[in-house]
Structures are given as structure tokens and as C-alpha cells.
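Figure 2 data, in text form.
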Amino acid sequence: MPETIKFGNNYSDISTDLAFQFEFNCGCCGTGYRSTARGYTAGQASKILGTASSLFGGFLGGLSTVGQTVRDASWKKAHDKAFEEAIIEMAPVFIQCPHCHSWVCREQCWNTKKGLCKNCAPDLGVEMSYAQSEKSVEEIHEHAAMAEEDKKLGTEYWRTNIRATCPKCEAPLAANAKFCPNCGAKLNEDDKCAHCGAKLNPGAKFCPECGEKV
């Protein structure tokens, strides 16, 4: 009984009449690897006979038929041998995941520490970095979509005294504004001296550093 050939479905046959060659693809990243092209002598002879018959016909046409028969008889055996050699050649490049059974490339898609492909056991550092980047992008889009007055409600403004109603007319305030839209009253007292920049205490009428009137 002939020996069976073990292989996956991650390949395509790109052989021609003159050579056998196969392309194997990673089931995770899709990267392709081509086996070494192996020449097919009988195929070359068949092509030569076929060309001669098209030029001269007759007796050479009969030889072409013989050559085609030879090619058909030997091609399958040579093809199987070339396929087996290609699988052996590609064996160091690929490995089969014991969980999902996909054939993946060792270079990029195999998690050596876990013994699984990276579809089943992703690199945690890569996943964490990606998650952080995704979160940052979401925050940028959310911030860009905010109205200008709403941006004033960000964390950088949380330490200031944001009022809900005007202290003078008691009108409700829809945004963090500097003046009341109903009566024009100033909503937030200055916390720095306009003259020297020193910090002012709540309710101060004069700057404690330069004496400037607030």
C-alpha cells in the first residue's frame, strides 16, 4: 500500500507543463510561501512534440499523441512526488494549531509560550496596546463631536466653580459660561490678580500681593 501524504487545505497548485510548484498560505495572516519549482522533463518533451505537430502535421502529429499519452501516464506520479517534496520543504515554515487546526506560519502567527496560534492565543502586549489605541481614538472622536460650550465641561475645568443658576437673577445655566445669558451678571469671580497674577482668596476685594483692587 503506498504511503499517504499528509497536508492541509492551505495551498494552491501553480504547476505548469514544464515544472511543478505549489504556494502555501498561512491560515492566520495569509502570507504566501512558494515551494521550489521542480522541472518536468516529460512535460518538455511533450511540448516539443506538440509544437512540431502543429507545424508539420501527419506523422509528427501522431508522435504528439504518443507524447501526450506519455505525459498523462507519468505526470500524476511526478506531480505527487513533487507535492510531497514541497510539503517537506515547507514543514519548517508552518505548524498546525492543536485548538483550531489551522496551519499557520511560525514566524508571525505562532505563540510559542502558549503552544497555540495567535488567533487562539494572541500576544497580550499587542492586544493591550491595540485596546489602548482604540480607546484613544474613540475619545478623540467623542471630543471632536462635542459642541464648543460642552468642551468647557471637561476635566480641566472641574476645579473651577461651575454654577447651575445665576447668583443674581437665578436663571438656570445651560452651559459653563462667564456671564449670565439672561441678565449679563458675571458668573465666576477671578481667582488671579489682573495686575500681578497672584492667586486671590474667595471674596477678596484687593490683591494680597500688590494691593490692586479686584
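Caption note: The first helix runs from residue 41 to 56.
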